[in-house]
Amino acid sequence: MAIKRLVYVLLVVVALVVVAVPAIAQDDAIIADGLTNPRQMFYDADGNLYIADVGTAGPLVTEEGTAYGNDGSILMVTPDGEISPVLAGFISYREGSPLGVHAVNVTDESYWVLLGETTTPALAFSHALVEIDREFNRIHTFVDLYTFEVTEDPDGNPDGASNPTDFVILDDGSFLIVDSGCNCLTNWTPETGVTLAVAWSQADDNPVPTSVALGPDGDIYVGFLTGFPFPQGGSRIERWSGGELVQTYEGLTAVTDVLVTEAGEIYAVEHGVFEMGAGWGPGRVVLVSEDGLTPVMEGLTVPYGLAQAPDGTIAVSVGSTPQGEGAVLAVPTMQ
User: Fold this and answer.
1) More confident residue, 97 or 59
2) pLDDT (tens digit, 9 = 90+) per residue, 242-275?
3) Counting C-beta atoms within 10 Å of the first and last residue's C-beta, which end of the chain has fewer, N or C?
4) Which is higher by pLDDT, 145 or 4?
5) ω before 190 within 30° of 0 (cis)?
6) What CATH number should be reported for the domain holding residue 52?
7) Could you tell me where the DSSP H helices lie in the chain?
8) Number of folded domains in the chain?
9) 115 belongs to a structural domain
10) Closest CA to 296 of 251, 326, 329, 263
Protein backbone atom coordinates (compact mmCIF):
# COMPACT_ATOMS: atom_id res chain seq x y z
CA MET A 1 0.00 0.00 0.00
CA ALA A 2 1.36 3.42 -0.84
CA ILE A 3 2.52 5.47 2.13
CA LYS A 4 0.07 8.30 1.62
CA ARG A 5 -2.89 5.97 1.21
CA LEU A 6 -1.78 4.26 4.42
CA VAL A 7 -1.89 7.63 6.16
CA TYR A 8 -5.50 8.11 5.08
CA VAL A 9 -6.49 4.63 6.23
CA LEU A 10 -4.86 5.23 9.59
CA LEU A 11 -6.70 8.53 9.89
CA VAL A 12 -9.95 6.61 9.67
CA VAL A 13 -8.84 4.16 12.33
CA VAL A 14 -7.44 6.67 14.79
CA ALA A 15 -10.42 8.95 14.37
CA LEU A 16 -12.45 6.26 16.07
CA VAL A 17 -10.42 6.76 19.26
CA VAL A 18 -10.61 10.36 20.39
CA VAL A 19 -9.88 11.49 23.90
CA ALA A 20 -13.11 12.76 25.43
CA VAL A 21 -13.00 16.38 26.53
CA PRO A 22 -15.58 18.34 28.49
CA ALA A 23 -17.80 20.88 26.82
CA ILE A 24 -16.16 24.28 27.11
CA ALA A 25 -18.58 26.56 25.30
CA GLN A 26 -21.03 28.83 27.04
CA ASP A 27 -24.29 29.52 25.22
CA ASP A 28 -23.10 32.95 24.14
CA ALA A 29 -20.10 31.36 22.42
CA ILE A 30 -22.24 29.09 20.21
CA ILE A 31 -22.81 30.49 16.73
CA ALA A 32 -24.40 27.29 15.38
CA ASP A 33 -24.89 23.76 16.68
CA GLY A 34 -26.51 20.51 15.62
CA LEU A 35 -24.07 20.23 12.70
CA THR A 36 -22.65 17.05 11.17
CA ASN A 37 -18.88 17.11 10.74
CA PRO A 38 -18.39 20.79 9.79
CA ARG A 39 -15.15 21.77 8.06
CA GLN A 40 -14.23 25.08 6.37
CA MET A 41 -16.41 28.21 6.53
CA PHE A 42 -16.92 31.58 4.83
CA TYR A 43 -18.54 34.87 5.87
CA ASP A 44 -20.15 37.16 3.30
CA ALA A 45 -20.28 40.94 3.57
CA ASP A 46 -23.72 40.80 5.22
CA GLY A 47 -22.49 38.63 8.07
CA ASN A 48 -24.02 35.37 6.83
CA LEU A 49 -21.86 32.37 7.67
CA TYR A 50 -21.60 29.51 5.16
CA ILE A 51 -20.47 26.12 6.49
CA ALA A 52 -19.21 23.11 4.55
CA ASP A 53 -20.98 20.30 6.44
CA VAL A 54 -19.63 16.92 5.38
CA GLY A 55 -22.49 14.80 6.71
CA THR A 56 -22.23 11.11 7.58
CA ALA A 57 -21.24 8.23 5.34
CA GLY A 58 -23.98 5.70 4.64
CA PRO A 59 -26.32 3.93 4.21
CA LEU A 60 -24.91 3.04 0.78
CA VAL A 61 -21.78 0.93 0.28
CA THR A 62 -19.37 0.86 -2.67
CA GLU A 63 -18.20 -2.35 -4.33
CA GLU A 64 -15.03 -2.06 -2.26
CA GLY A 65 -17.10 -1.96 0.95
CA THR A 66 -16.71 1.75 1.78
CA ALA A 67 -19.76 3.48 3.20
CA TYR A 68 -21.08 6.61 1.53
CA GLY A 69 -24.19 8.74 1.45
CA ASN A 70 -25.51 12.01 0.07
CA ASP A 71 -26.21 14.19 3.10
CA GLY A 72 -23.31 16.62 2.67
CA SER A 73 -24.48 20.24 2.48
CA ILE A 74 -23.67 23.92 2.52
CA LEU A 75 -25.43 25.55 5.45
CA MET A 76 -26.07 29.27 5.93
CA VAL A 77 -26.28 30.84 9.38
CA THR A 78 -27.75 34.34 9.44
CA PRO A 79 -26.55 37.00 11.90
CA ASP A 80 -29.71 36.19 13.90
CA GLY A 81 -28.64 32.56 14.21
CA GLU A 82 -31.11 30.97 11.77
CA ILE A 83 -29.64 27.91 10.04
CA SER A 84 -30.77 26.65 6.64
CA PRO A 85 -29.28 24.57 3.83
CA VAL A 86 -28.54 26.49 0.64
CA LEU A 87 -27.12 23.44 -1.15
CA ALA A 88 -27.63 19.76 -0.34
CA GLY A 89 -27.06 16.25 -1.64
CA PHE A 90 -23.25 16.19 -1.72
CA ILE A 91 -21.45 12.86 -1.32
CA SER A 92 -20.27 12.00 2.19
CA TYR A 93 -17.65 9.29 1.90
CA ARG A 94 -16.04 6.95 4.44
CA GLU A 95 -16.98 6.23 8.04
CA GLY A 96 -14.97 7.47 11.01
CA SER A 97 -13.46 10.52 9.35
CA PRO A 98 -15.76 11.30 6.41
CA LEU A 99 -14.73 13.20 3.31
CA GLY A 100 -16.92 15.24 1.01
CA VAL A 101 -17.77 18.92 0.83
CA HIS A 102 -14.70 20.53 2.39
CA ALA A 103 -14.79 24.28 1.73
CA VAL A 104 -17.03 27.04 0.37
CA ASN A 105 -16.75 30.60 -0.92
CA VAL A 106 -19.68 32.77 -1.97
CA THR A 107 -19.69 35.54 -4.58
CA ASP A 108 -22.56 37.71 -5.80
CA GLU A 109 -23.42 35.21 -8.53
CA SER A 110 -22.11 31.84 -7.39
CA TYR A 111 -21.41 29.31 -4.69
CA TRP A 112 -17.93 27.83 -5.09
CA VAL A 113 -17.69 24.43 -3.40
CA LEU A 114 -14.62 22.21 -2.95
CA LEU A 115 -15.23 18.46 -3.05
CA GLY A 116 -12.75 16.06 -1.46
CA GLU A 117 -11.48 12.57 -2.04
CA THR A 118 -13.22 9.35 -2.87
CA THR A 119 -11.20 6.31 -3.88
CA THR A 120 -14.08 4.86 -5.87
CA PRO A 121 -14.09 6.03 -9.51
CA ALA A 122 -17.84 5.43 -9.74
CA LEU A 123 -18.41 8.39 -7.39
CA ALA A 124 -17.60 10.96 -10.03
CA PHE A 125 -18.83 14.07 -8.20
CA SER A 126 -15.64 14.43 -6.14
CA HIS A 127 -12.04 15.70 -6.35
CA ALA A 128 -13.26 18.99 -7.79
CA LEU A 129 -13.92 22.70 -7.45
CA VAL A 130 -17.50 23.37 -8.49
CA GLU A 131 -19.26 26.64 -9.32
CA ILE A 132 -23.01 26.60 -8.69
CA ASP A 133 -25.30 29.42 -9.80
CA ARG A 134 -27.02 31.12 -6.85
CA GLU A 135 -30.21 31.93 -8.73
CA PHE A 136 -31.13 28.48 -10.02
CA ASN A 137 -28.60 26.21 -8.21
CA ARG A 138 -27.24 24.91 -11.50
CA ILE A 139 -23.64 23.80 -12.04
CA HIS A 140 -21.74 26.32 -14.15
CA THR A 141 -18.16 25.07 -13.77
CA PHE A 142 -16.60 21.75 -12.81
CA VAL A 143 -12.84 21.93 -12.24
CA ASP A 144 -11.41 18.40 -12.28
CA LEU A 145 -8.53 18.17 -9.79
CA TYR A 146 -8.10 14.40 -9.83
CA THR A 147 -6.83 14.14 -13.40
CA PHE A 148 -4.12 16.72 -12.68
CA GLU A 149 -2.78 14.59 -9.83
CA VAL A 150 -2.73 11.29 -11.72
CA THR A 151 -1.19 12.76 -14.87
CA GLU A 152 1.28 15.24 -13.35
CA ASP A 153 2.14 13.54 -10.00
CA PRO A 154 3.39 16.80 -8.41
CA ASP A 155 4.84 15.26 -5.23
CA GLY A 156 6.56 12.31 -6.90
CA ASN A 157 4.35 9.69 -5.29
CA PRO A 158 2.54 7.70 -8.00
CA ASP A 159 -0.34 6.58 -5.77
CA GLY A 160 -2.94 8.79 -7.50
CA ALA A 161 -3.98 10.33 -4.18
CA SER A 162 -5.95 13.56 -4.47
CA ASN A 163 -7.87 15.17 -1.62
CA PRO A 164 -8.67 18.88 -2.12
CA THR A 165 -9.22 20.49 1.29
CA ASP A 166 -9.17 24.29 0.96
CA PHE A 167 -9.06 27.16 -1.55
CA VAL A 168 -8.92 30.93 -1.77
CA ILE A 169 -9.95 33.38 -4.49
CA LEU A 170 -7.23 35.92 -5.26
CA ASP A 171 -7.78 39.57 -6.14
CA ASP A 172 -7.15 38.85 -9.83
CA GLY A 173 -9.95 36.27 -9.89
CA SER A 174 -7.70 33.21 -9.97
CA PHE A 175 -8.07 30.36 -7.48
CA LEU A 176 -5.43 28.73 -5.28
CA ILE A 177 -6.41 25.21 -4.23
CA VAL A 178 -4.72 23.05 -1.60
CA ASP A 179 -4.68 19.32 -2.31
CA SER A 180 -3.56 17.29 0.71
CA GLY A 181 -3.37 14.11 -1.31
CA CYS A 182 -0.88 15.37 -3.88
CA ASN A 183 1.06 17.58 -1.44
CA CYS A 184 0.48 20.49 -3.75
CA LEU A 185 -0.97 23.96 -4.22
CA THR A 186 -2.56 24.49 -7.63
CA ASN A 187 -3.77 27.56 -9.48
CA TRP A 188 -6.90 27.64 -11.64
CA THR A 189 -8.34 30.15 -14.07
CA PRO A 190 -10.84 29.50 -16.87
CA GLU A 191 -8.16 30.45 -19.40
CA THR A 192 -5.26 28.34 -18.12
CA GLY A 193 -7.04 25.49 -16.37
CA VAL A 194 -5.28 23.76 -13.47
CA THR A 195 -1.57 24.55 -13.15
CA LEU A 196 0.97 23.84 -10.45
CA ALA A 197 1.85 26.64 -8.02
CA VAL A 198 3.92 24.69 -5.45
CA ALA A 199 4.58 21.03 -4.71
CA TRP A 200 6.15 19.48 -1.62
CA SER A 201 7.97 16.17 -1.85
CA GLN A 202 6.23 13.19 -0.34
CA ALA A 203 9.60 11.49 0.08
CA ASP A 204 11.08 14.27 2.22
CA ASP A 205 8.59 14.79 5.03
CA ASN A 206 5.12 14.19 3.53
CA PRO A 207 3.92 17.56 4.90
CA VAL A 208 0.23 17.19 3.86
CA PRO A 209 -0.91 20.78 3.22
CA THR A 210 -4.44 21.35 4.49
CA SER A 211 -5.19 25.08 4.27
CA VAL A 212 -4.45 28.25 2.36
CA ALA A 213 -5.11 31.87 3.35
CA LEU A 214 -4.57 35.26 1.76
CA GLY A 215 -2.93 37.99 3.82
CA PRO A 216 -3.81 41.70 3.58
CA ASP A 217 -0.54 42.33 1.71
CA GLY A 218 -1.29 39.65 -0.87
CA ASP A 219 1.05 37.06 0.64
CA ILE A 220 -0.09 33.44 0.71
CA TYR A 221 -0.11 31.33 3.88
CA VAL A 222 -0.19 27.52 3.73
CA GLY A 223 -0.82 25.31 6.78
CA PHE A 224 0.31 21.68 7.08
CA LEU A 225 -1.08 18.68 8.96
CA THR A 226 1.96 16.36 8.57
CA GLY A 227 1.61 12.64 8.01
CA PHE A 228 1.07 9.83 10.51
CA PRO A 229 1.85 9.72 13.43
CA PHE A 230 1.28 13.51 13.43
CA PRO A 231 4.21 14.44 15.72
CA GLN A 232 3.59 17.13 18.28
CA GLY A 233 5.33 20.32 17.14
CA GLY A 234 5.97 18.82 13.70
CA SER A 235 3.63 21.04 11.69
CA ARG A 236 4.29 24.44 10.18
CA ILE A 237 2.83 27.40 8.32
CA GLU A 238 4.63 28.73 5.26
CA ARG A 239 4.36 32.30 4.01
CA TRP A 240 4.84 32.83 0.28
CA SER A 241 5.33 36.16 -1.50
CA GLY A 242 5.78 36.66 -5.22
CA GLY A 243 6.15 32.94 -5.74
CA GLU A 244 8.96 32.63 -3.17
CA LEU A 245 8.95 31.11 0.32
CA VAL A 246 9.79 34.01 2.62
CA GLN A 247 8.98 32.73 6.12
CA THR A 248 8.20 29.52 7.98
CA TYR A 249 6.42 29.35 11.34
CA GLU A 250 7.33 26.08 13.02
CA GLY A 251 6.42 24.20 16.18
CA LEU A 252 2.71 23.77 15.45
CA THR A 253 0.76 20.53 15.66
CA ALA A 254 -1.68 19.07 13.10
CA VAL A 255 -2.75 22.34 11.50
CA THR A 256 -6.08 22.16 9.66
CA ASP A 257 -6.72 25.86 8.96
CA VAL A 258 -5.05 29.26 8.87
CA LEU A 259 -6.68 32.69 9.00
CA VAL A 260 -4.91 36.03 8.51
CA THR A 261 -6.78 39.14 9.67
CA GLU A 262 -6.70 42.57 8.07
CA ALA A 263 -4.29 43.57 10.83
CA GLY A 264 -1.94 40.77 9.77
CA GLU A 265 -2.58 38.54 12.79
CA ILE A 266 -2.17 34.84 12.02
CA TYR A 267 -4.57 32.39 13.64
CA ALA A 268 -4.32 28.62 13.23
CA VAL A 269 -6.35 25.58 14.23
CA GLU A 270 -4.38 22.74 15.79
CA HIS A 271 -6.57 19.67 15.32
CA GLY A 272 -5.19 18.02 18.46
CA VAL A 273 -2.25 16.07 19.83
CA PHE A 274 -2.21 12.46 18.68
CA GLU A 275 -1.05 9.68 20.99
CA MET A 276 -0.59 6.07 19.91
CA GLY A 277 -3.25 3.92 21.53
CA ALA A 278 -5.22 6.93 22.76
CA GLY A 279 -6.04 8.85 19.57
CA TRP A 280 -6.62 12.59 19.27
CA GLY A 281 -6.52 14.76 22.35
CA PRO A 282 -8.11 18.20 22.60
CA GLY A 283 -7.36 20.75 19.89
CA ARG A 284 -7.08 24.51 20.07
CA VAL A 285 -6.89 27.84 18.27
CA VAL A 286 -3.55 29.64 18.52
CA LEU A 287 -2.17 33.03 17.55
CA VAL A 288 1.03 32.59 15.54
CA SER A 289 3.92 35.06 15.45
CA GLU A 290 7.70 35.14 15.12
CA ASP A 291 7.82 34.84 18.91
CA GLY A 292 5.92 31.55 18.93
CA LEU A 293 2.38 30.40 19.70
CA THR A 294 -0.18 32.00 21.99
CA PRO A 295 -3.18 29.82 22.92
CA VAL A 296 -6.48 31.60 22.24
CA MET A 297 -9.06 28.85 22.75
CA GLU A 298 -8.28 25.40 24.15
CA GLY A 299 -10.03 22.14 25.01
CA LEU A 300 -11.77 21.83 21.63
CA THR A 301 -12.99 18.51 20.25
CA VAL A 302 -11.55 17.89 16.75
CA PRO A 303 -11.65 21.55 15.63
CA TYR A 304 -11.12 22.28 11.94
CA GLY A 305 -11.91 25.60 10.19
CA LEU A 306 -11.76 29.34 10.85
CA ALA A 307 -13.64 32.33 9.42
CA GLN A 308 -13.86 36.01 10.31
CA ALA A 309 -17.11 37.99 10.21
CA PRO A 310 -17.37 41.59 9.00
CA ASP A 311 -17.64 42.74 12.63
CA GLY A 312 -14.32 41.05 13.44
CA THR A 313 -15.71 37.97 15.18
CA ILE A 314 -13.63 34.86 14.51
CA ALA A 315 -15.46 31.54 14.32
CA VAL A 316 -14.08 28.00 14.64
CA SER A 317 -15.78 24.77 13.61
CA VAL A 318 -15.60 21.86 16.07
CA GLY A 319 -16.82 18.28 16.01
CA SER A 320 -15.39 17.88 12.51
CA THR A 321 -15.52 14.08 12.79
CA PRO A 322 -18.28 11.91 14.30
CA GLN A 323 -16.55 11.81 17.71
CA GLY A 324 -17.75 15.31 18.63
CA GLU A 325 -20.96 17.28 18.35
CA GLY A 326 -20.73 19.50 15.30
CA ALA A 327 -20.86 23.21 16.09
CA VAL A 328 -19.38 26.60 15.32
CA LEU A 329 -18.06 28.63 18.24
CA ALA A 330 -16.97 32.24 18.64
CA VAL A 331 -13.26 32.52 19.41
CA PRO A 332 -12.51 34.73 22.44
CA THR A 333 -11.05 38.15 21.70
CA MET A 334 -7.40 38.51 22.60
CA GLN A 335 -6.87 41.14 25.30
Assistant:
1) 59
2) 999 999 999 999 999 999 999 999 999 999 988 7
3) C
4) 145
5) no
6) 2.120.10.30
7) 3-15, 146-152
8) 1
9) yes
10) 329
Query: Tens digit of pLDDT for each residue in 185-235?
Result: 999 999 999 999 999 988 777 899 999 999 999 999 999 999 888 899 999
Per-residue DSSP letters for 61-93?
E-TTS-EEEEEEEEEEE-TT--EEEEEEEEEEE
**Cβ neighbours for 172, distance < 8 A, ≥ 6 positions apart:** none
10 Å Cβ neighbour count for 329? 23
Residue 325, domain member (yes or no): yes
Host domain of residue 85: 3-330
- Whether omega for the bond prior to residue 164 falls within 30 degrees of 0, making it cis, is no
Tell whether 335 is covered by a domain.
no
3-class DSSP state for residue 307? strand
Integer Cα distance of 259 and 335 in angstroms: 18
Per-residue b or e along 9-28, where b marks 16 or more CB atoms closer than 10 Å to that residue's CB: ebbbebbeebeebeeebeee
**Is the Cβ–Cβ distance between 103 and 40 less than 8 Å?**
yes
Q: What order do you get walking across the sheet with 110-115 strand by strand?
A: 101-106, 110-115, 128-133, 139-144
For residue 246, give the amino acid letter: V
Give domain status of residue 220, yes or no: yes
Adjacent-strand bridge partners of 141: 131
